[in-house]
UniProtKB/TrEMBL annotation:
<dbReference type="GO" id="GO:0003677">
    <property type="term" value="F:DNA binding"/>
</dbReference>
<dbReference type="InterPro" id="IPR047930">
    <property type="entry name" value="Transpos_IS6"/>
</dbReference>
<dbReference type="GO" id="GO:0006310">
    <property type="term" value="P:DNA recombination"/>
</dbReference>
<dbReference type="InterPro" id="IPR032874">
    <property type="entry name" value="DDE_dom"/>
</dbReference>
<dbReference type="Pfam" id="PF13610">
    <property type="entry name" value="DDE_Tnp_IS240"/>
</dbReference>
<keyword id="KW-0238">DNA-binding</keyword>
<keyword id="KW-0233">DNA recombination</keyword>
<feature type="domain" description="DDE">
    <location>
        <begin position="74"/>
        <end position="203"/>
    </location>
</feature>
<protein>
    <submittedName>
        <fullName>IS6 family transposase</fullName>
    </submittedName>
</protein>
<keyword id="KW-0815">Transposition</keyword>
<dbReference type="InterPro" id="IPR052183">
    <property type="entry name" value="IS_Transposase"/>
</dbReference>
<dbReference type="GO" id="GO:0032196">
    <property type="term" value="P:transposition"/>
</dbReference>
Amino acid sequence: MKKISYHRHRFPPEIIKQAIWLYFRFTMSYRAVEELLAQRGIDVSYETVRRWALKFGIDYARRIKKRRPQSHTEWFLDEVFVKIGGKPMYLWRAVDGEGEVLDVLVQKRRNKKAALKLLRKLLQSQGILPTKIVTDKLRSYGAALRDLNIKHLHDTTNRLNNRAESSHVPIRRRERKMQRFKSHKSAQIFLSIHGSIYNLFNTQRHLISRKTLRQLRSITMIEWNHVTNAA
Protein backbone atom coordinates (compact mmCIF):
# COMPACT_ATOMS: atom_id res chain seq x y z
CA MET A 1 0.00 0.00 0.00
CA LYS A 2 1.46 3.37 -1.03
CA LYS A 3 2.29 5.62 1.91
CA ILE A 4 0.38 8.85 2.49
CA SER A 5 2.63 11.88 2.03
CA TYR A 6 2.69 14.46 4.82
CA HIS A 7 5.43 16.41 3.02
CA ARG A 8 5.43 20.22 3.45
CA HIS A 9 3.10 20.14 6.45
CA ARG A 10 4.33 22.08 9.48
CA PHE A 11 2.85 19.63 11.97
CA PRO A 12 3.99 15.99 12.24
CA PRO A 13 1.71 13.15 11.05
CA GLU A 14 0.90 12.12 14.65
CA ILE A 15 -0.84 15.46 15.29
CA ILE A 16 -2.64 15.50 11.92
CA LYS A 17 -4.05 11.99 12.32
CA GLN A 18 -5.01 12.75 15.94
CA ALA A 19 -6.99 15.82 14.88
CA ILE A 20 -8.81 13.87 12.15
CA TRP A 21 -9.51 10.99 14.54
CA LEU A 22 -11.04 13.37 17.10
CA TYR A 23 -13.23 15.10 14.52
CA PHE A 24 -14.68 12.00 12.86
CA ARG A 25 -14.67 9.64 15.83
CA PHE A 26 -16.55 11.93 18.21
CA THR A 27 -19.34 14.50 17.86
CA MET A 28 -16.95 17.45 17.76
CA SER A 29 -16.71 20.64 15.74
CA TYR A 30 -13.48 21.89 14.19
CA ARG A 31 -13.30 24.56 16.90
CA ALA A 32 -13.69 21.91 19.61
CA VAL A 33 -10.78 19.95 18.13
CA GLU A 34 -8.74 23.18 18.03
CA GLU A 35 -9.40 23.80 21.74
CA LEU A 36 -8.61 20.23 22.73
CA LEU A 37 -5.29 20.37 20.90
CA ALA A 38 -4.54 23.80 22.40
CA GLN A 39 -5.07 22.36 25.88
CA ARG A 40 -2.27 19.93 25.05
CA GLY A 41 0.04 22.71 23.92
CA ILE A 42 -0.58 22.33 20.17
CA ASP A 43 -1.43 25.68 18.54
CA VAL A 44 -3.40 24.88 15.39
CA SER A 45 -6.39 26.76 13.95
CA TYR A 46 -9.79 25.17 13.31
CA GLU A 47 -9.41 26.08 9.62
CA THR A 48 -6.23 23.99 9.45
CA VAL A 49 -8.10 21.08 11.07
CA ARG A 50 -10.82 21.48 8.41
CA ARG A 51 -8.24 21.32 5.59
CA TRP A 52 -6.62 18.24 7.13
CA ALA A 53 -9.99 16.52 7.44
CA LEU A 54 -10.77 17.11 3.76
CA LYS A 55 -7.31 16.33 2.39
CA PHE A 56 -6.36 13.28 4.46
CA GLY A 57 -9.81 12.05 5.53
CA ILE A 58 -10.67 10.90 2.00
CA ASP A 59 -7.39 8.93 1.74
CA TYR A 60 -7.88 7.37 5.18
CA ALA A 61 -11.44 6.31 4.32
CA ARG A 62 -10.35 4.76 1.02
CA ARG A 63 -7.60 2.77 2.69
CA ILE A 64 -9.88 1.58 5.49
CA LYS A 65 -12.43 0.35 2.92
CA LYS A 66 -9.80 -1.64 1.05
CA ARG A 67 -8.73 -3.45 4.20
CA ARG A 68 -12.18 -4.23 5.62
CA PRO A 69 -13.42 -7.84 5.42
CA GLN A 70 -16.24 -8.74 3.03
CA SER A 71 -19.61 -7.43 4.14
CA HIS A 72 -22.34 -9.54 5.71
CA THR A 73 -24.73 -11.03 3.15
CA GLU A 74 -27.85 -9.32 4.55
CA TRP A 75 -28.25 -5.67 3.61
CA PHE A 76 -30.50 -3.09 5.26
CA LEU A 77 -31.47 0.05 3.33
CA ASP A 78 -33.20 3.18 4.51
CA GLU A 79 -33.62 6.82 3.52
CA VAL A 80 -34.13 9.88 5.70
CA PHE A 81 -35.03 13.50 4.99
CA VAL A 82 -32.32 16.13 5.53
CA LYS A 83 -32.05 19.84 4.77
CA ILE A 84 -28.84 20.85 3.02
CA GLY A 85 -28.19 24.48 2.20
CA GLY A 86 -31.85 25.18 2.92
CA LYS A 87 -33.02 22.63 0.32
CA PRO A 88 -34.81 19.33 1.06
CA MET A 89 -32.65 16.28 0.28
CA TYR A 90 -32.63 12.57 1.13
CA LEU A 91 -29.88 10.62 2.80
CA TRP A 92 -29.87 7.05 1.44
CA ARG A 93 -28.00 4.66 3.71
CA ALA A 94 -27.08 0.97 3.52
CA VAL A 95 -25.73 -1.16 6.37
CA ASP A 96 -25.10 -4.88 6.60
CA GLY A 97 -26.29 -7.48 9.11
CA GLU A 98 -23.48 -6.56 11.51
CA GLY A 99 -24.14 -2.82 11.46
CA GLU A 100 -21.27 -2.02 9.08
CA VAL A 101 -21.95 1.06 6.95
CA LEU A 102 -21.84 -0.10 3.32
CA ASP A 103 -22.57 3.18 1.59
CA VAL A 104 -24.20 6.58 2.03
CA LEU A 105 -25.65 8.65 -0.81
CA VAL A 106 -27.11 12.15 -0.68
CA GLN A 107 -29.78 12.51 -3.39
CA LYS A 108 -32.47 15.00 -4.34
CA ARG A 109 -35.22 12.43 -4.86
CA ARG A 110 -36.87 9.53 -3.10
CA ASN A 111 -37.91 7.65 -6.23
CA LYS A 112 -36.97 4.55 -8.23
CA LYS A 113 -34.07 6.29 -9.98
CA ALA A 114 -32.51 7.20 -6.62
CA ALA A 115 -33.01 3.67 -5.25
CA LEU A 116 -31.45 2.20 -8.41
CA LYS A 117 -28.40 4.42 -8.07
CA LEU A 118 -27.80 3.24 -4.51
CA LEU A 119 -28.33 -0.44 -5.34
CA ARG A 120 -26.10 -0.40 -8.43
CA LYS A 121 -23.35 1.34 -6.48
CA LEU A 122 -23.67 -1.23 -3.69
CA LEU A 123 -23.55 -4.24 -5.99
CA GLN A 124 -20.51 -2.85 -7.78
CA SER A 125 -18.56 -1.80 -4.68
CA GLN A 126 -19.33 -4.88 -2.56
CA GLY A 127 -18.74 -7.38 -5.35
CA ILE A 128 -21.27 -9.87 -3.97
CA LEU A 129 -24.97 -10.61 -4.31
CA PRO A 130 -26.66 -10.42 -0.90
CA THR A 131 -28.94 -13.16 0.42
CA LYS A 132 -31.51 -10.63 1.62
CA ILE A 133 -32.24 -6.91 1.13
CA VAL A 134 -34.36 -5.42 3.89
CA THR A 135 -36.13 -2.07 3.38
CA ASP A 136 -39.20 -0.19 4.55
CA LYS A 137 -42.34 -0.27 2.42
CA LEU A 138 -41.27 2.54 0.08
CA ARG A 139 -42.32 1.36 -3.41
CA SER A 140 -39.17 2.76 -5.03
CA TYR A 141 -37.15 -0.13 -3.58
CA GLY A 142 -39.41 -2.79 -5.04
CA ALA A 143 -39.41 -1.13 -8.47
CA ALA A 144 -35.60 -0.79 -8.47
CA LEU A 145 -35.05 -4.39 -7.36
CA ARG A 146 -37.45 -5.58 -10.07
CA ASP A 147 -35.38 -3.74 -12.70
CA LEU A 148 -32.24 -5.48 -11.38
CA ASN A 149 -33.96 -8.90 -11.38
CA ILE A 150 -33.38 -9.43 -7.65
CA LYS A 151 -36.90 -8.73 -6.36
CA HIS A 152 -36.89 -12.21 -4.74
CA LEU A 153 -34.32 -10.94 -2.20
CA HIS A 154 -36.60 -8.16 -0.98
CA ASP A 155 -37.97 -8.24 2.59
CA THR A 156 -40.23 -5.52 4.03
CA THR A 157 -41.28 -7.24 7.27
CA ASN A 158 -42.35 -4.72 9.93
CA ARG A 159 -39.56 -3.56 12.27
CA LEU A 160 -36.98 -5.74 10.57
CA ASN A 161 -35.38 -2.60 9.19
CA ASN A 162 -34.65 -1.10 12.61
CA ARG A 163 -30.93 -1.71 12.08
CA ALA A 164 -30.79 0.72 9.14
CA GLU A 165 -33.01 3.27 10.88
CA SER A 166 -30.83 3.19 14.01
CA SER A 167 -27.71 3.77 11.91
CA HIS A 168 -28.98 7.30 11.13
CA VAL A 169 -28.63 8.34 14.80
CA PRO A 170 -24.87 9.21 14.78
CA ILE A 171 -25.37 11.29 11.63
CA ARG A 172 -28.38 13.12 13.07
CA ARG A 173 -26.20 13.95 16.09
CA ARG A 174 -23.46 15.33 13.84
CA GLU A 175 -25.97 17.24 11.74
CA ARG A 176 -27.16 19.12 14.83
CA LYS A 177 -23.59 19.82 15.94
CA MET A 178 -22.68 21.19 12.52
CA GLN A 179 -25.92 23.22 12.39
CA ARG A 180 -26.92 21.34 9.25
CA PHE A 181 -24.82 20.45 6.21
CA LYS A 182 -23.96 23.42 4.04
CA SER A 183 -23.89 21.83 0.58
CA HIS A 184 -24.58 18.56 -1.24
CA LYS A 185 -20.90 18.03 -2.02
CA SER A 186 -19.59 18.74 1.49
CA ALA A 187 -22.27 16.49 3.00
CA GLN A 188 -21.36 13.59 0.69
CA ILE A 189 -17.63 13.94 1.43
CA PHE A 190 -18.19 14.08 5.19
CA LEU A 191 -20.58 11.11 5.21
CA SER A 192 -18.26 8.94 3.09
CA ILE A 193 -15.30 9.60 5.39
CA HIS A 194 -17.36 9.29 8.56
CA GLY A 195 -18.83 5.94 7.49
CA SER A 196 -15.42 4.29 7.02
CA ILE A 197 -13.95 5.61 10.25
CA TYR A 198 -17.15 4.71 12.12
CA ASN A 199 -16.85 1.12 10.84
CA LEU A 200 -13.27 0.85 12.06
CA PHE A 201 -13.94 2.06 15.60
CA ASN A 202 -17.48 0.77 16.11
CA THR A 203 -17.73 -1.87 18.87
CA GLN A 204 -20.82 -3.37 20.45
CA ARG A 205 -19.78 -2.39 23.99
CA HIS A 206 -22.87 -3.88 25.64
CA LEU A 207 -22.13 -7.32 24.15
CA ILE A 208 -18.51 -7.73 25.27
CA SER A 209 -16.49 -7.77 28.48
CA ARG A 210 -14.16 -4.99 29.58
CA LYS A 211 -11.14 -7.16 28.82
CA THR A 212 -12.33 -7.87 25.28
CA LEU A 213 -13.07 -4.17 24.78
CA ARG A 214 -9.48 -3.27 25.69
CA GLN A 215 -8.17 -5.87 23.25
CA LEU A 216 -10.42 -4.60 20.44
CA ARG A 217 -9.37 -1.01 21.08
CA SER A 218 -5.73 -1.99 20.87
CA ILE A 219 -6.24 -3.87 17.59
CA THR A 220 -8.24 -0.98 16.14
CA MET A 221 -5.59 1.61 16.99
CA ILE A 222 -2.92 -0.58 15.38
CA GLU A 223 -5.05 -0.69 12.22
CA TRP A 224 -5.60 3.09 12.39
CA ASN A 225 -1.86 3.72 12.65
CA HIS A 226 -1.33 1.42 9.68
CA VAL A 227 -3.81 3.12 7.36
CA THR A 228 -2.55 6.57 8.37
CA ASN A 229 1.12 5.52 8.05
CA ALA A 230 1.83 7.13 11.41
CA ALA A 231 2.94 4.20 13.55
